[in-house]
Amino acid sequence: MPSYRSLFGTPEFTPLFLGSAAQTAAQTVGGLALATLVYRATGSPLLSAVSMFGPSLAQVLGATVLLSGADRLPPRTALSLIALAFAAGTAVQAVPGLPVGAVFAVVLLLGLVASLGGGVRWGLLNEVLAKDGYLPGRSLFNMMGGLTQVAGFATGGALLTALSPRVCLLLSAALYLTAALVLRLGLSARPPRTAGRPSAPATWRTNALLWSSRPRRLTYLGLWLPNGMVVGCESLYVSYAPHAAGTLFACGALGMFAGDATVGRLLPPAVRRRLATPLLLVLAAPYLVFCARPPLPVAAVCVAVASVGFGASLVQQERLMELTPGELAGQALGLHSSGMLTMQGVSAVLAGAVAQLTSPAAGMTAMAAGSVCMTLVLATAARRSPAPEPGPARPGREPRPAPGPEPRPARPGPEPDPESPGPRAR
Fold it and tell me: How many helices and strands, by DSSP H and E, does the chain display?
């Protein structure tokens, strides 16, 4: 397995890494600022949660209409335009006097745009790195995301005490512009991986292929459901601790960094493969403590310990890598990303609704209990599934098909983890 340092010697890895870091920082600062702005204006835990994680709700529409573009658009152009769209949308959200309804319209529109980003980004990463480089590359991106979120939430929390949420949104827009510039100047002009034009019918056909195998379906659900419910817990940080939400988000990002570093670099493959279910249980169980409404220091420790469990996604992605046809790599990654982020958005709405009727602590406890139950159900179902046949060659390393009818591989499959739409994409 290549070292982290050697990855930066790969052409295009560094600008893709830096551009993604700038976008993660922008999402972190902007998401916290927007949730704070909405909470101050409405006093509603539900609307605050939806404002921060609402873009994820539009992922389901993007997954059914736009995902074929992940393999059919030039990666550099697509990534640069997505970053520019987020810069413009974030700047609009900072306009004084903008109605809350208009804020949510922009939130959902940005979520629709983001649904394409995961497939393009991770499909390109898979294409850029050598065969054995994808897992450490994803691990490094995840750790970067954790550290950036630690710094972003801590900085965002400090900025919100000195500046208004609207000023913080403008700073977020500037970071998105920086990301667009880095991606445009640093990436090469690669052609699309698959011939043909993006279309809704092409998206539907490929999604059906990716969903056609029971083991792959269970892997997708394992990546989407337990993770999404725990992000529902995270969506209530602002209403649980209005003046210390940045601290909780930073502790969660630190725990995620520790989990990704341990799973991605320290554990041998034989051990790693057995840890998906235990890590998913670690991801949810500490949030059950919130039923007692713990004080901030105890809550911060619970959040940090729980977030170590996000390392489960690397184990699950490694399994998906074995099942994904090369010509479908981008869309498979995009389907995983969109499904995960959609579930995060749905969970944020459910958690916010429970908190609205009861309390933020009760909402967090309910979502954690649901995540534990779903993990156990999926683990039982997976043990009863037949072992999958060996998968095709690693995605992104096969020659591009010639123009003509779209490929119809005999044995389709999905693929690994995501991009970062709502501020907490895992």
Answer: 19, 0
* Whether the model pTM is above 0.85: no
> In which element (H, E) is residue 221 found?
helix 214-234
Q: Tens digits of per-residue pLDDT, 92-115?
A: 999 998 998 899 899 888 888 887
Q: What is the dihedral of CA 113, 57, 123, 412, to 10 degrees?
A: -130
Spatial separation of the C-alpha atoms in residues 34 and 156, rounded to whole Å: 11
Chain centroid to Cα 41, Å, comes to 28
Cα 172 to Cα 33: distance, rounded to the nearest angstrom: 9
Under DSSP, the state recorded for 401 is P
Q: How many residues does the chain have?
A: 426
The C-alpha atoms of residue 226 and residue 232 are separated, in whole angstroms, by 10
How many of the other CB atoms lie within 10 Å of CB of 13? 21
Q: How far apart are CA 187 and CA 190, in angstroms?
A: 8
pLDDT tens by residue, 331-375: 777 777 778 877 887 898 899 999 999 999 999 999 999 999 999
Quote the tokens at residue 400: 């591009």
- Which strand (E) or helix (H) includes residue 147? helix 134-162
Q: What is the pLDDT of residues 1-10, one digit of tens each?
A: 677 888 898 8
Spatial CB neighbours of 295, under 8 Å, sequence gap ≥ 6? none
Q: Which of 403, 413, 398, 414 is nearest to 131 (CA)?
A: 398
Residues 254 and 150 sit within 8 Å (Cβ to Cβ): yes
- Per the listing, tokens 């500046």 go with 163
Query: What pLDDT, on a 0 to 100 scale, did the predictor assign at position 175?
Result: 96
Tell me how far CA of residue 82 lies from CA of 19, 87, 88, 182, 199, in angstroms. Answer: 12, 9, 10, 13, 18
Token couple for 374:
């779903």
